Amino acid sequence: MIRKLFWVGIGVGVGVLAARKVGSVKQNFGRDGLNRSVGRLADALAYSADAFRDGMHGRETELRAALGLDQPPAGGPSHRG
């Protein structure tokens, strides 16, 4: 008797988990789910691009300082024409 109740409980638990998973998959493949997924992807791409630009700007600043490109020329103002 206890074995049967145990297996019925396992079956009910698996059934509930399967029903919840099917429900979430159905929700994700609907129009709203697709919009959410695309929105998340766009946000992730924008965040990555911003992080890349920040890193690129920081590295350029380091390189310009190391090469002395941001300092005025040592001989005074020069006239380039």
Helical residue percent? Answer: over 70%
Shape: elongated
How many distinct beta strands?
0
Contiguous low-pLDDT stretches (5 residues minimum) are none
Structural class: mainly alpha
Q: Specify Rg, calculated over alpha carbons.
A: 31 Å
Tell me the number of helical segments per DSSP (H or I, 4 or more residues long): 2
Terminal residue distance? 100 Å
Order of helices and strands: HH
Mean pLDDT: 84
Q: How would you characterize the largest beta sheet? A: none
Could you tell me the strand content as a percent range? under 5%
What order do the helices and strands come in, and which of them pair?
Elements: H1 2-28, H2 31-67
Write a structural description.
The protein is 79% helix and 0% strand. With 81 residues, it is mainly alpha-helical. The longest helix has 37 residues, at 31-67. The termini are far apart. The mean pLDDT is 84.
Give keywords.
mainly alpha, 81 residues, elongated
Give a quick summary of the entry.
The protein has two helices and no strands. It has helices spanning 2-28, 31-67.
